[in-house]
Predict the structure.
Amino acid sequence: MHPTVIKTENLTKVFKIGFRGRRVTALRNLNLEVKEGEIFGFLGPNGAGKTTTIKMLIGLIYPTNGKAWILGRELGDVEIKKRIGFLPEQPYFYDYLSSKEFLKFYGQLFGLERDELKERIDTLLTMVGLKDAADLQLRKFSKGMLQRIGIAQALINHPDLIILDEPMSGLDPIGRKEIRDLILRLKEEGKTIFFSTHIIPDVEMVCDRVGILMKGELVNVGKPTEIIDAKIKYIEIIVSDINQEILIHGKAMGFTICETGGQVSIKLPDENQLDFMLEMIRSGKGRIVSVVPQRETLEEFFLKKTGERIS
């Protein structure tokens, strides 16, 4: 049985807004457990309360009601901060520092000695794929590079728990894959990773368990395969060098076909039609570039979940 790294009991946060002090509940009675060594995805649309939860866990704001424990210690215990690595959703970077200087600054904050710090910086820059950019100023970094140096900063103190707030937001597909690979590597090293996101595929690819937050309330917790059942709306096949007669036949069957840049996109409304269409493409000597099931959007998924709760 793995030890519990994060535990909350009825954790609640109420903000007072405006001149009249109108009360807005950002998080309501959150009961959650995260086990040692797992990747836990905190999934929800923007404004669901994910960042509010994270800010309470790391001590940036205080709960209105409820309790929480991190690594066996109650919130507010300063000692646990030494064992946590944190990357905020919108981190601030010192533009004119190089990668090495940036990590050295944070390492010194944690009291790392000179030789240990130098070795740690080299290890982290290699881990996040930025060894060749060790002397490059951060102002010259791409969004993906900044996310990677941000994760390196979150690891400088050898943390047991790593908390990442929307680490893949705003990244292109390559950047998201790089961050996913990093998260999986950290799990292999025995780290516990808690990260928030609103991107369903990222959760499906890396998480052991996921919690769904909706309007400040936890609506479900479990394995991604158990609770993320976003419906496939259509399947898109990208092909090249396809026979025009096959395209005409496909249109007659009700498939959506679009030709762009020398390639053809074929959208099948029913996944049961996939084998038939692939066989047609092969018989016409077409080259299959990709086959991608397109699922309902996150908004549609959460609206469905909300409807289930209301009914």
User: Anything to note?
Assistant: The domain at 232-295 is CATH 3.30.70.120 (Alpha-Beta Plaits).
